[in-house]
Amino acid sequence: MSQPNPPAQADKASDNEVSALADVPQLGLWAAIASLSYVFWVVGGMEMIERLAYYGVKAVATLYAKDPVSKGGLGVTMSEFGTLLAIWALVQSIVPAFTGGLSDRYGYKQTIAASTVVKICGYLTMAAFTTYAGFFAGAMLLATGTAIFKPGIQGTLVKSTRRENSSMAWGIFYQTVNIGGFLGPLVAGYMRKMEWRYVFLACAAIISLNFLMLLIYKEPGKEERLARAAAGGNAGQKSLAAESLAELSKPHVWTYLGIFSGFWFMFNSLFDVLPAHIEEWVDTRGIVLDLFGGQKVESPLVQFFVVMNKDGSEILPEGMLNLNAALIMITCFLVAGWTGKLKATTSMWIGTLLASLALALSGWSSLGWISIGAIAIFSLGEMMSSPKFSEYIGNFAPDDKKAMYLGFSQIPLAIGWFLEGKVGPLLYDHMASKDRFAREMLSEKGWDAAKVAAVKQGEAFDTLVQLLGQNAHDVTRMLYERHELSIGAVWYIMAVVGVVSAFGIWVYAQQVRKWMAKSAN
Q1: For 207-219, how does the pLDDT look when each residue is reduced to its tens digit (9 = 90+)?
Q2: Is 510 exposed, middle or buried (0-12, 13-18, 19+ CB in 10 A)?
Q3: Mean pLDDT of the chain, nearest integer
Q4: In this structure, which long-range contacts are made by residues 315-319, counting pairs with CB atoms below 8 Å and at least 24 apart in sequence?
Q5: Closest by alpha carbon to 269, among 112, 492, 464, 120?
Q6: Closest-CA residue to 248 (of 408, 18, 21)
Q7: Taking the CB of residue 324, how many other CB atoms lie within 10 A of it?
Q8: What average pLDDT does this structure show over 372-395?
């Protein structure tokens, strides 16, 4: 992790830049909510729609990739899928660092509209080409569209709020975002029971609703942007790349971005690796029994909202993970009100530690309720960390570079997601894959290497179940008990990354105080 610069280097930042790092007293809970503007709620609705479509794919992408071809999936290993994730991360997260300024120069509305077109093309590509290459191409379009979308949306949010209500604004924004994050997996869970391509078609239809939202959207600060363009003209401005690099070179900017990468490593493991872990090792039958008083749920409505398998006996991975979005959707404004009383950096390092604890807990047991507890703890840590991260960088960004700086906020996501995309699935593939363990047991039962290799990817466990003549749950338990330490180690390793990141944030907070004291003198 990057470490803060010594105090001498802080001289490179102006007094205004250093003072912008200071926390500002926040309005009370209800006063802050009442102070939020019309355009804030419009932009929250646009982000909600975009996230609904995005997480409709993201929540099931891992399951789609590892599902065998015979069941309509891609039939690839977690390691192969990790390569796609790493490139997806780079495109989606690095591009905004150099194109975020487009929104500042040419208008938020224009870039949001362009991004929506690109994202529709991405979903349609996934639906039309049901191969690894087709999904790869669709993911790259989706990543590009998201990269263009984010700076304009977040720039609008910053322009439409004040320092005094920024904590509540980012908290509620995060809450509305997670309404989309909650509904997306519900749609995906329902659609994939019919056919995988229906997931992508549904997401294309959903994101197109943002064209309607653009009809009632009004760009804040448009007059100032047009006045700047009329006074200087775009021709006299620096290139966006050069201007972005100049801002990124400031110590308080790149240090802040670097140390938060560990949080995004953990965050993306929740969506890229945990679905596979839950599907393969977590027993959710006990949750169904405790909540509904029976071994199966017959109600189609309950099956839809809980996201259950076809016979209502188990909760699917996207249903388990949806607890994360549900908790944030319901409680984030309360957490925002509470964390508004804390220093932003304090909220971030505590939240990152909680997320680390949650990952460790995920690897500790295969019980469904333990997994539920881990997801709940992670959700609290996420609410304390992620909105504060965006709020903090939005506050210290110069007035004419809000979208650019919020484009920079994707850099730690790029680093964390890229590393997780390669490391997380690779760790899981070698240390926790049920398919790999099933192949090893087939060899132990006398199958030669050629016969084992002939079993298609993703079908080894079903083959083992048939060979042993036992039910799938008993065979799963047997494999888990044999490899429990290895399976748990995947999550302990990823939790360590979060602990290191939390320590880095704490050190940065101490350095900021030194910079501010020096600036005051």
Answers
A1: 999 999 999 988 8
A2: exposed
A3: 85
A4: 315/284, 315/287, 315/288, 315/368, 316/189, 316/279, 317/63, 317/274, 317/275, 317/276, 317/278, 317/279, 318/59, 318/60, 318/63, 318/185, 318/188, 318/189, 318/275, 319/185, 319/189
A5: 492
A6: 408
A7: 25
A8: 87
How far is it, in rounded angstroms, from Cα 356 to Cα 361?
Answer: 9
Give the pair of three-digit tokens for residue 113.
């509209």
Which residue bears the tokens 């982000």? 47
Kindly write down the DSSP assignment for every residue of 429-485, as one continuous string: HHHT-HHHHHHHHHHHTT--HHHHHTSPTT-HHHHHHHHHT--HHHHHHHHHHHHHH
Q: What is d(CA 50, CA 212) in angstroms, rounded to the nearest whole number? A: 13
Residue-range domains of the chain with CATH: 7-226+244-431+470-520 (1.20.1250.20)
Q: Residue 164 is which amino acid?
A: E
Residue 68 CA to its chain's centroid (Å):
25
- Six token digits for residue 182: 């909650």
The predicted-structure confidence for 485-509, as pLDDT tens digits, reads as follows 999 999 999 999 999 999 998 988 8
Q: Is 314 helix (H, G, I), strand (E, B) or coil?
A: coil
The C-alpha atoms of residue 52 and residue 179 are separated, in whole angstroms, by: 8
- Contacts of 228-233 with CB under 8 Å at 24 or more apart are 228/400, 229/105
* Percentage of residues of the chain with pLDDT beyond 90: 45
Angle between helices 368-396 and 285-292 (to 10 degrees): 90
Angle of the 240-248 helix axis to the 78-106 helix axis, nearest 10: 110
Full-model pTM: 0.77
One-letter amino acid of 191: M
